[in-house]
Amino acid sequence: MGARGWAGIALAVLLCVLFLSLCVRIVPGGAPEAPPPEPSAPVSDNASLLIPVEGVAIDALTDTFTQSRAQGARPHDAIDIMAARGAAVLAAADGRIEKLFWSGEGGRTIYERSPDGRRIYYYAHLEGYAPGLREGQTVRRGQRIAIVGSTGNADPSAPHLHFAVHVAQPGEPWHGGRPVNPYPLLTGGR
């Protein structure tokens, strides 16, 4: 084989190594998961949930829970947290990833269930999930789980996180429960 043939093989090997180093994370079996990052979004002293978008202050939140959507056809039952596309979405509380789901309205979504099974946290219009995020995974308050986007029926020029909280019975389906206003849970009733 000539020098040109060997150069082509060497280039192919180099590209494969580069691809693997960028796309594959090798973790030894049984290795503990890395500890979650410290929460970096502000939390009110009385709030029970972390603001689930990194860098968004309490004063930047607007209560949109009772606003109507779809020309008055349905209530919002959530709040929209405006943020730059690609901003980190953080777990608002400890929990377990119940469902990673795509829907026409919510786009790329996450359903997280609280450890006691009584709350479901819904994150929608996500641009992408955090690397390695999977159903059944335990997450900690403040852990990066996704990035802000405008998937689903969100306006592409107004990226935001649609964040909802549902009170559920343990064992109730991931899409069940009764909506409660997340605004006071994030702001401590301000």
Which key terms come to mind for this protein?
two-stranded antiparallel ribbon, nine-stranded antiparallel beta sheet, Glucose Permease (Domain IIA)
What does this structure look like?
- One of its GO terms (molecular function) is metal ion binding.
- Pfam families: Peptidase_M23.
- By secondary structure, the chain is α+β, with helices and mostly antiparallel strands.
- It has two helices and eleven strands; from the N terminus they run αβββββββββββα.
- Strands 3, 4, 5, 6, 7, 8, 9, 10 and 11 form a nine-stranded antiparallel beta sheet that branches.
List the helices and strands and how they pair.
Blueprint: H1 3-23, E1 68-69, E2 74-75, E3 79-82, E4 88-90, E5 95-103, E6 107-113, E7 119-129, E8 138-139, E9 144-148, E10 160-167, E11 178-180, H2 182-187
Antiparallel strand pairs: 1-2, 3-10, 4-9, 5-6, 5-8, 6-7, 7-9, 7-10, 10-11
The largest β sheet comes out as:
9 strands, antiparallel
Share in β-strands: 25-35%
User: Total number of β-strand segments?
Assistant: 11
Q: What's the helix-strand series? A: HEEEEEEEEEEEH
Mean pLDDT across residues: 79
Radius of gyration: 20 Å
**What is the global morphology?**
globular
CATH-wise, what's the superfamily of the domain at 58-187? Answer: Glucose Permease (Domain IIA)
